[in-house]
Amino acid sequence: MDFASNITAAALFQQVLVGLSRTTILFIVSSGLSLVLGVLRIPNVAHGSLYMIGAFLTYTIAAAVGPGAFGFWIALVLAPLGVALLSFAAERGLFCHLYEREHLMLLLFTFSMTLVFNDLVKLIWGSDYRSFTAPGFLQGSFDVFGLPFPRYNLFLLLIGPLVAFGLWFLTNRTKIGKIARAAAVDREMVGAVGINVSWIFAATFVIGCYLAGLGGALVAPTQNITQGMDHTIIIEAFLIVIIGGLGNIWGALLGALIFGLTDSLGILIWPQFAIVFPYVAVVIVLLFRPKGLLKSTW
Amino acid sequence: MLRIEALTKSFDGFMAVNNARLTVDQGEVVAVIGPNGAGKTTLFHLITGQLAPDSGSIRFQEKEIAAKAPHKICRMGIARSYQVVNLFSRLSVFENVQVAVLARRGKTFNLLRPSRTIAVDETNQILESVGLGGKADRVCGMLSHGEQKVLEIAIALGSRPEMLILDEPTAGMSPEETAQTLALMKRLVAEFELTILFCEHDMAMVFSIADRIMVMQQGQTLVEDTPEAVRSNLLVQEAYLGGGAAPC
Amino acid sequence: MIRALFSAKTLLVAALLLAALILAPQVLPRFYIYLMALVFVTGLLATSLNMVLGFGGMYQFHHAVFYGFGAYALTLLLTKAGMPPVFAYLLAPCCSAALGLLLGLITVRLTKLYFGMLQISLGSLVWALAYRWYSFTGGDDGIHGIPLPDVVYSSTGAYYFSLAVCSVSLLVMYLIVNSPFGRIFQGIRDNPERCRAVGVDVHRHQLAGQAIAAFFAGVAGTLFVTVEGSVFPELMFWTLSLELIIMCLLGGWFVFLGPMLGAAIIVVLRTFVGIYTEYWTLVLGVVLMLLIFFLPEGVLGFALRKAGPAQADPAKE
Questions:
Q1: Which helix (H) or strand (E) holds C189?
Q2: Longest distance between any two alpha carbons in chain C, whole Å
């Protein structure tokens, strides 16, 4: 292990770009987790499974529509919606009856969803991994200081700000966003003025899960779609949400940035144990700000 | 014994306690009165360390205690009860008080002796003295509201404090229970030489036991004087007694 | 000490049960002996989790880390350090306790959910290290064929060893739960704010509780190595931790022996469901959903409530 021998300025820049596109995925997934945490005050353990389902659905839909750009775009739109639909059914059918219970019960219920979802994925898609490729104009790479940078990553870099803007618009400029933010602070108050809190929760939950599905759909062309891809992402999303501040979407952005960059730079420095670097960053952040970088909503 | 000066605490710009002052001497019974939202409970939270003040000083037995951790303040000799019943909900009445006694004796890291054999006499004595002796084995959630308020005081006594802070000790009690609690407070002062600082809305009760009274309004100390002087103080009548909401 | 805690009836039942368990290998086929040993290991683990979860009110979401860490510690002390087995068996749980202290120092300042989520995350780091460090931990394959002392090498030997260690550990944990420390711990569970107000240093107690629970999880880890003869990273995977919480919930987490019962049910169920289908997690997920909806106080908690509070006394606390 001769680390740090192959670091050049260009490689560094390339890794930063890779890290930033990784950040996009992380941000999309963890902002969904954070949204649910902020309003429902539960870490949705099933978030990772929904991400995985999003990826598998993207593969299936793209394969069904046929190769080419059209199938990809259709899949990118439909797969997250499918995930949202699934979460909506689970929320209205089962989850919403538990809102009066202790937090631990709610958390365990999301865990039971994880167990069920994961085996359903195994049942439907089997244990093999799947992979598919992005349409032609997103394939290949272009040069950055003489090193290749995948086009698809550039696409991700464009999507990230778009989603961030959408979330900002949703939470700050729409009625439901404002109500949800108020419900995060004081749900009794919101209930008292005659708003159906249960439906606010449902909407938040579904939007959060949609983001998990979107993350899964976007990540699908970049890696193998496998059983177990849920575990890594949920742990990462947990960490991001913790350092960002529970329930704070901009905290999730900040946390995803820290996580994505330390992770990709870590690969450059010490490939086998690159995973250590984001954790070290997390522990350092928490030593100074035990409640996360930005103000949590509760 | 307790000296508070220029104490200030604000929440998001709202001045809950604003430049308050208060002095309590050894053996005194001091009442804090004032309309709802005057900052009485915040003041008590500041004294016992649940909240840290923005500025000002709280000295207890000549030592600065502002912003110290609650458990340290308790070990220095200040125990408190809560306005809203705040018990160990799954423990029995006996165990509720025993927690406080064990904590005071510093036995909390004793791992292998059955706690049934430790501090039993002292805990039972406290329960007897507040009149809960017969209900020691009940789960505390099964007690009536009045009994729970008394248990609040019993837990505070388990810390064997020099100064007892009671946040509305008789709130929600029936007249008989109020009378009993009043008698209990008098006995605590007489027998254990406790210093008591309390707040209360029941004016009859306040005037029958307090040696001195502090009137709070909008977080500030309005008056701090003997009951007679307070009663005749016009300022108070304007702020409180005549302020529309008639005190009981 | 014992007399103060147990009634004559409880002692009699315990003695009879112990006698039956000691005689079991004479009667039952080997597979059942192995299964029972596995129940002891898992039950001990779930009980140690419940010390902090049910009695301490801490959201201990990643308890399996301490279990796996103890198992790896024993294995590495035996294979890499070549330590005499007696010392290795004593030292391994201490390693777990040390890890508990270390993680606790970072996590214990945080409240409930923050605590739990951070614990899951940090625990996952430990898992990831074991998973990738091929030269030291064997990576995702784990380590097999661990040289165990002859006494515990046979399946009956392992059975008796785990029965003995499990019984002693349960007794000690029961003493701790009923000690002043345990009383304060329950006070912290019910009302940390009030505990501070009566002079309890809540964080120090939670840290100590964490270390103690980690120690016993480590003990369970060493027993696992004894029974299975191997270690692998799944031992500290976070889903196992959540499964442990299910065991506590299933048995009833306000009852001392609840998690033991829950562990027995889950282990046996997994073994037999596994014969018919590979979709065990699906079954577990549905069981958990039913449990949350219909039996939130657990099997033992439900039974004790039905039996009435008077009879609930000896096993309760």
A1: helix C180-190
A2: 57
With vertex at residue C121, the alpha carbon angle to CA A234 and CA C219, rounded to the nearest 5 degrees, is 125
Which one of C4, C178, C198 has the shortest CB-CB distance to B103? C198
Of A251, A283, A26, the C-alpha closest to A156 is: A26
According to the model, what pLDDT value does residue B238 have? 65
Let me know how long chain A is. 298
Domain boundaries in chain C?
2-307
Helix, strand, coil in percent for chain A, rounding step 5: 75, 5, 20
10-residue mean pLDDT profile of chain A (298 residues): values are 60 82 90 87 89 92 81 88 92 84 85 91 86 76 75 85 88 81 75 78 90 91 85 89 85 90 85 82 83 72
Pick left, alpha or beta for residue B6 (phi over 0 → left; psi -120 to 50 → alpha; otherwise beta). Answer: left
* Res C314: pLDDT: 38
d(CA B40, CA C301) in angstroms, rounded, equals: 42
Which residues neighbour A256 within 8 Å (Cβ) at sequence distance 6 or greater? Answer: A23, A24, A26, A27, A30, A240, A244
Nearest partner of A23 among A160, A139, A158, A138, judged by Cα: A160
User: Half-sphere exposure of A283 toward its Cβ, with a 13 Å CA cutoff?
Assistant: 15
Q: Are A45 and A234 in contact (CB under 8 A)?
A: yes
Q: Are the beta carbons of C199 and B112 separated by less than 8 Å?
A: no
Residue C259 is encoded by which pair of tokens?
């998690």
> What is the number of H-type helices and E-type strands within chain A?
11, 2
Q: Is residue A138 part of a domain?
A: yes
Q: Is domain C2-307 classified as CATH 1.10.3470?
A: yes
Element (H, E) at B4: strand B2-11
Closest CB from C128, C245, C279 relative to A108: C245
Residue C211 — very low, low, confident or very high, per pLDDT cuts 50/70/90?
very high
With an 8 Å Cβ cutoff, are B109 and C208 in contact?
yes
CATH superfamily of B78-160: P-loop containing nucleotide triphosphate hydrolases (3.40.50.300)
ipTM of the complex, rounded to two decimals: 0.82
Residue C312 pLDDT more than 50?
A: no
Chain B residues with CB-CB distance to C187 below 8 A:
88, 91, 95, 99
pLDDT, tens only, C174-187: 999 988 999 999 99
Per the CB < 8 A criterion, the answer to whether C48 and C177 are in contact is: no
- How open is the CA angle A233-A237-A240, to the nearest 5 degrees? 140
Which residues of chain B, if any, have pLDDT below 50?
Answer: 243-248
Domains in chain B: boundaries: 1-69+162-169+188-248, 78-160
Q: C294 touching A, CB under 8 A?
A: no
Distances (CA, A) of C125 to A40, A85, A122, C308: 27, 33, 26, 45
Amino acid at B207: F
Start-to-end C-alpha separation, chain B: 31
Q: What domain range includes position A74?
A: 27-227
> Can you read off the two tokens belonging to residue B117?
């054999």
The CATH fold of domain B1-69+162-169+188-248: Rossmann fold (3.40.50)
pLDDT recorded at residue A294: 82
Q: Which of C61, C62, C113 to mutate to test the interface with A (most CBs of A within 10 A)?
A: C113
- What domain count does chain A have? 1
Q: Are residues C61 and C242 in contact, defined by beta-carbon separation less than 8 angstroms?
A: yes
